[in-house]
Design brief:
The chain has 150 residues and is of the alpha+beta class. It folds into 2 domains: 42 residues, no CATH class; 90 residues, 2-Layer Sandwich (Alpha-Beta Plaits). The chain is 27% helix and 23% strand. The longest helix has 17 residues. About 11% of the residues have low confidence. One of its GO terms (biological process) is DNA biosynthetic process.
Amino acid sequence: MMIDELEFRDVIQKISKPNEWVHLISVVAEGQKLRLTEDLRKLNEHVPGRSNLSPLPKMQSHSIHQVRISPPSSTSGVEYNHRGDESLAGIDNTEKVVGDIILYDSSMHLHEKNVRKLLDRCRDTEITVNPNKIHCGKTEVKFSGFRVKL
């Protein structure tokens, strides 16, 4: 999505003077695409919620992104997290932190079964899975800022 489109959809807004509620973003080029990034640590100090999860051993990683939210929505992050949590409820050995999902099992057979269940659930609830961010059968993955090893 280009900056002009984000502005048109009221996701971002240009400002020309000091404002009480401003949050910085960065735009990063990823090949031919632009990616909007942000550091929400300071903002999160003012919003109650769950703390980061501690990673558990023997986990596999999957990442998701993009859910449809009717603009304009000042609570789109909250809605994104809530919809993701609801969508993945009941899938064994799965943890989610914002847009990162990690799925871990005690055997490859169980893992394959739960990966299929996770992908089916994502399809059914219109969660877009980025195939470039799926990692199966790895002994080490990155998850929510942690390096997780078997």
